[in-house]
Design goal:
By secondary structure, the protein is an alpha+beta fold. The chain is built from twelve helices and 26 strands. It is elongated, with a radius of gyration of 28 Å. 43% of the residues are buried.
Length: 644
């Protein structure tokens, strides 16, 4: 028997399955139906919401004039100042380490100094790939890039108490920072020159050397020097992920972390454009000061955004540790609106000390709320624990009613499959082991995810012209078996559904149209890897088979944006680009990128492939994981763009 996982007809494959159970394994009917596999991390009961208040430091109120007289900085205390774009001298500070900062065992102390721009003129960057332009301005690419940025200069020599460009030839180049994205940080090791002596650093903040004829203005910036830690930093290696949105809400998840040392994480959500957005976002997109100031304005507005924080173990299965993710449900959003999201981690370095809270900013992601109200965000669904996206539901139908209708469809199908798998002696080394890495519990979990993906369609706004706006076939007659090639236009796999007499297709299951009554909506098709994972993790006995990509698959499935011409693989179709920024940071298996574009409904298989293949790359002797080789997701920029 071969089970072909096409999903246009919901009942045919189950007739085969039921026949298999009744004829091949009659004793299975006497066995107890198994629950969802207990080994799955995401199938555990949802963790309770967190009551922790936001720990993001508020806006500083005092602004010092550091262009007239140098301002003395206190350890770990943020100070604000101003400097004009066309100023001929910098803003100057000093930071003194008293003798008590040193000890006999440690005569060297590290000082971290950070500067972030709060607001001011945004200088457009030069096109540093244009060699003719660089020759005309007589600059290297690095010099041209730095010339449009504010800069931080630090001197440990009392001869240079106003460090700046004039001292560039004598200052250590490691003591100079340029505010890319509105932020920079410099680390200096200070050595005590003698017993019981204090030591001083002199600090200069300078405007960009090249204003490129931008209208003169004034920068407000904040500066902090600390011997405790880097008080403001940007971590380019991790970022949040957007699960999905509906008309007024969004669900955002953090990176994985262990419960033994949970970070304090908060989300900042700003409109990408218009009122309360981050002004001149490309110039200030790494500035903690500018972002937090804009966030304060949102919280103090007439329509503040509300964020409910909780923890989840959904989609942490690839890790061998007891990993958790922080989840943020954002409400109070406007329909059909682009938003930018940052995660901020705060660390209390010294209990009870307000000046000992360090902050780390993570790369931004983009999202867009739905225009229509017939897509509803659902998560923590007991019978489909990996569902965390919008499903098609009429606004007049309650979420409880909708999920009950789905459960009536899902539960018997999962129970039948589970019962069939339980007839196989999975744990018996002599008779039941079909793999050293896969188990029957993993098989059930993969099937559960596939079943939920097809029973709970991922809802999105319908397309005005699906023939040109979607990569999915809207009419199965278009699939002839001829190669369809790469998705070079990076279109999503969306099918318009339930058009009430229009050219749109009906929903894939009758109960959706009859009980959920969503009306006209778009369905983001499941990634075909949800089907492949069943084939990958289940015993060969069930003969699970997925449809062929260019024959029937593109009627029911989509695939990753970086998959090959046959819908499989990763880092193809141009990969992550020459600079690694095509998806907003180097990674593979792209079901959703950092710019708010979603290509197929992954049910977490993109995370599993990324994590498992990254783990395999750390073990040189490990066998390559099926469907791909090593993949390590590293985000190296806070590029600003948006999803339309």
């Amino acid at each position: 028997m071969v089970v072909v996982a096409t999903i246009g007809s919901p009942h045919g494959s189950w007739l085969l399955l039921l026949l298999f159970v009744l004829i091949g394994f009659p004793h299975a009917l006497a066995q107890q139906v198994s629950p969802a596999p207990s080994s799955s991390a995401s199938s555990r009961a949802p963790l309770p919401p967190s009551t922790t208040r936001s720990a993001i430091p508020g806006r500083a109120t005092s602004i010092y004039n550091a262009t007239v007289n140098a301002v003395a900085l206190n350890d770990s205390i943020i100070a604000r100042s101003r400097i004009d774009l066309n100023a001929t001298q910098g803003a100057f500070f000093n930071f003194t380490l008293p003798p008590t900062a040193f000890s006999e065992d440690n005569r060297t102390v590290t000082v971290w100094t950070s500067v972030s721009l709060c607001n001011g003129p945004a200088i457009p960057p030069y096109n540093t790939s244009n060699t003719t332009l660089l020759e005309s301005i007589d600059k290297t690419a690095t010099q041209a890039r730095r010339s449009t940025l504010a800069s931080l200069w630090i001197s440990d020599n009392e001869l240079f108490q106003q460090p700046g460009p004039a001292n560039a030839s004598v200052l250590d180049s490691n003591n100079i920072g340029y505010a890319q994205g509105g932020w920079t940080s410099v680390e200096v090791d200070v050595q005590q020159s003698g017993d019981n002596s204090s030591e001083t650093l002199w600090i200069g903040v300078w405007p960009p050397a090249d204003s490129r004829n931008v209208t003169p203005g004034t920068y407000q910036f904040q500066i902090v020097a600390s011997t405790r830690a880097k008080m403001e930093s940007v971590d380019y290696t991790r970022r949040p992920t957007i699960d999905d949105t509906d008309q007024t809400r969004a669900l955002i998840s953090s990176f994985n972390y262990t419960t033994s040392s949970p970070p304090t994480l908060d989300a900042i959500v700003l409109p990408t454009f218009g009122s309360n957005s981050l002004a001149d976002a490309e110039y200030f997109n790494s500035s903690f000061c500018a972002i937090v100031d804009a966030w304060s304005d949102v919280l103090n507005s007439n329509q503040p955004v509300s964020i409910n924080r909780s923890d989840t173990r959904r989609r942490t299965e690839a890790s061998m540790q007891d990993d958790t993710r922080r989840r943020f449900e954002v409400s109070g959003l406007d329909a059909g609106t682009n938003y930018t999201v940052w995660l901020v981690e705060t660390t209390n370095l010294e209990q009870g000390s307000a000046q000992s809270v360090s902050t780390t900013l993570f790369p931004a992601i983009k999202m867009k709320t739905k225009r229509s109200d017939n897509c509803r965000l659902v998560y923590d669904v007991p019978f489909c624990p990996n569902v965390a996206y919008s499903i098609p539901v009429n606004p007049s139908v309650s979420t409880t009613t909708a999920l009950s209708a789905v459960e009536e469809f899902v539960t018997p199908q999962y129970s039948n499959f589970s019962m069939m798998i339980d007839t196989f002696p999975c744990g018996d080394r002599d008779f039941g082991m079909y793999s050293y890495v896969q188990t029957c519990d993993k098989c059930k979990k993969s099937y559960q995810d596939w079943l939920c993906a097809v029973a709970m369609p991922r809802c999105t706004d319908p397309l005005e012209d699906p023939e040109t706006q979607s990569r999915a076939t809207q009419d199965s007659t278009q699939l002839t078996g001829a190669p369809t090639g790469l998705n070079t236009k990076l279109l999503p796999y969306i099918v318009n559904r339930n058009g009430n007499g229009s050219s749109a297709l009906t929903s894939r299951h009758d109960f959706i149209d009859k009980q959920l009554r969503p009306g006209f909506y778009g369905e983001l098709l499941p990634c075909i890897y949800t089907c492949y994972f069943v084939e990958r993790t289940c015993p060969p006995l069930i003969q699970w088979a997925c449809p062929v990509w260019d024959v029937t698959a593109q009627r029911d499935y989509g695939t990753f944006a970086d998959s090959g011409p046959e819908g499989i693989g990763a880092a193809e179709n141009g990969g992550s680009g020459k600079d690694g920024m095509r998806w907003g940071g180097y990674q593979r298996y792209i079901a959703t990128d950092a710019f708010g574009n979603t290509y197929c409904n992954s049910m977490g298989v993109d995370f599993l492939l990324r994590d498992s293949n990254a783990a395999s790359s750390r073990c040189s002797s490990a066998v390559a994981i099926l469907f791909g080789t090593s993949a390590i997701a590293v985000t190296t920029s806070l590029l600003i763009t948006f999803a339309f």
